[in-house]
Amino acid sequence: MSKPANIGIMTSGGDSPGMNAAIRAIVRTALFHDIKPFGIMRGYQGMLEGDIKELLTTDVSNIIHRGGTILKTARSKDFMTEDGMKAAYDQISKHHIEALVLIGGDGTMRGAVEFFKRYKIPAIGMPGTIDNDLNGTDFTIGFDTAVNTAIWAIDKIRDTAEAHDRMFIVEVMGRDAGYIALNSGLACGAEYIFIPEQKEMMQDILTSIQDDRKRKKMTNIIVVAEGDEFGGANEVSALIKQSIPDIETRVTILGHIQRGGSPTCVDRILASRLGHGAVEALAAGRTQEMIGIVNGEIVFTPFASCVKLQKPIPDDLLEMIKVLAK
After folding, report:
1. Is 131 a catalytic residue?
2. Catalytic residue, candidates 15, 106, 131, 133
């Protein structure tokens, strides 16, 4: 494939801090290579509706520090139909868009696979999700910011927990992946961490909590991923109180504050490296790959190898939870 004259850029699925930094890097790298960048609003839904506009370097000024995405984002069931993909192809053809840079998670990559099967539009994907659940990169754009937001909140909650000798159960995002819970819990010294990837023996945890109380350790922080086997923080709290009625528990659900806010230095640099590399990859003829960083180096993973797969949680981190919480 020769260097594309025009490329489309879109953000899809859940927003993540650093998406704007990625858009900025893509636009300015494209212009450096005399490639005309077009912003596709609201992901695949905006693509099929023709909500597309040319982007200039001034359009991406002063956005590197902003959360969210200036291109907006959405999930689109319509796109995954034959009619939807045909409409999307017709709309990008009107703007002579020859290749795509897609920023998103698993669903974004799956959409690119299906679109390429039908219309052979080259695409490079960028991992933009706070869940850090895509193979082919050590970290996804937005994960570091989300974890630091959770740490900021849990540190404050611990102050109140200590003051009142209470157990606080904090729910963080992670429907299918426990990376936010694991990393924020370890960083904050949580006594227990519930993640989807690991089954917990609730009776063992209840016994451990009772042992803590016997030795006058009255304060506990439990971090729960929203997709854990028990159903979230409220369900975990109910199970604990059912067995230990006199224990005081408080539940805090952090929710969407983890998605927002100014991206950290780590996410700004990661997004910028990947955005620059994505355009360079398209200009060099690469397609149907997700760009990522592994051990500090840019790598490319075929879409088929990064979708529907979850990165395994490192065993040493799981062991650390048990050792350091005592």
Report:
1. yes
2. 131
